[in-house]
Amino acid sequence: MKRGFWIASLSCFLVGLACITIGLAKGGRLGFKVDLKNHKVITADSKNVMKFDQQVDEFENIDLRLSVIDVTIEEGDDFRVAYMIEEDLKPEIEVKDGTLYVNGRKSNKFEISVSLGFENMGDDINTMKITVPKGTKINKGELHTSTGDINITGLDFNDLSIYGCTSGISLENEKIDDLLVDVSTGEVNLDNIKAEKMSIKTSTGDIIMDKMDIDTGDVHSSTGEINGRFVNELEDYALDISSSTGDITVNDTEAEKHYSSKGKNNFSFSTSTGDITLKFAD
Q1: What one-character-per-residue DSSP string does 151-220 give?
Q2: Closest-CA residue to 98 (of 66, 159, 155, 139)
């Protein structure tokens, strides 16, 4: 067991190192600048911050490729992109053939912001907000980020794919036909999600799910806990749950290493190192 733990830890370290390398290649910035007195992170070259807030043409697809910018996508009054970022990270923004393209620029440095648990971090530097009018359904969203967080609230998607290296992913009040989240290092939070098909994967990071209405899916974390609460009954699922090093609990029933059940919808959960705790409607 100890040997397996150290192998998993080494693998996660190598994944993290690979993410930093990718971040450098894609234009990230390196440096930790934390103002403990004022409870905020100070970004490098903050004096060169630029603001942008502009309505864009209508779109039904989103193609986003950024490095260190935190992105929020939510309902608004119109199709709009707004950001406050360091000047040398200015992205290219274009709506073409019904698709919003957002591509980040490369930079000479790689920055990792450290919050240390503080909530009010000061100015929202290196953040972007994308809005769509209420009732808009996005056909396809493909979002790539190296070290930035992605937060999406209250939208409908046919297909949504999110890829992150060192990133936190948060989805809330979403209806998605086909959902894919693939994150190397970072926590995934899903709240009140309705989906026909879902695939969630992290190498290092917890997966936390609440009020989930999912038909079929698979959830996997190499090193991290999986916690989920589902609105459907346990009898609805053919479950396949496994944990190499960790406890499994399903509706307060504990199992060692593996749990399975019969039902009409297939759903699998697995982790190499971490507990799995699932709750289904009674």
Answers
A1: EEES-EEEEEEEEEEE--EEEEEEEEEEEEEEEEES-EEEEEEEEEEEEEEEEES-EEEEEEEEEEEEEE
A2: 139
CA distances from 17 to 11, 13, 206, 214, 256 (A): 10, 6, 19, 34, 33
Contact 56, 67 (CB under 8 A): no
Residue 124: both structure tokens together: 């929202």
Distance between CA 17 and CA 12 in Å, rounded?
9
Structure tokens at 213: 């209405």
| Residue 124 pLDDT level (bands cut at 50, 70, 90) | confident
How confident is the model over 69-96, as pLDDT tens digits? 999 999 999 999 999 998 888 999 999 9
Cα angle for residues 154, 160, 165 (degrees, 5° grid): 105
Say how many C-beta atoms besides its own lie within 10 A of residue 109's C-beta. 15
- Kindly compute the dihedral angle of the four CA atoms of residues 94, 96, 99, 100, in this order, to the nearest 10 degrees: 10
Instruction: Taking the CA atoms of 21, 205, 245 and 242 in sequence, report the sign of the dihedral they define.
Output: negative
* 268 and 241 Cβ atoms separated by less than 8 Å: yes
Tens digits of residue pLDDT in 6-16: 555 565 555 55
Please report where in the chains the tokens 């992170």 appear, as a residue.
41
Distances in Å between the alpha carbon of 21 and those of 32, 133, 165, 201, 218? 17, 38, 10, 21, 29
Alpha-carbon gap, residue 63 to 139, rounded angstroms: 11
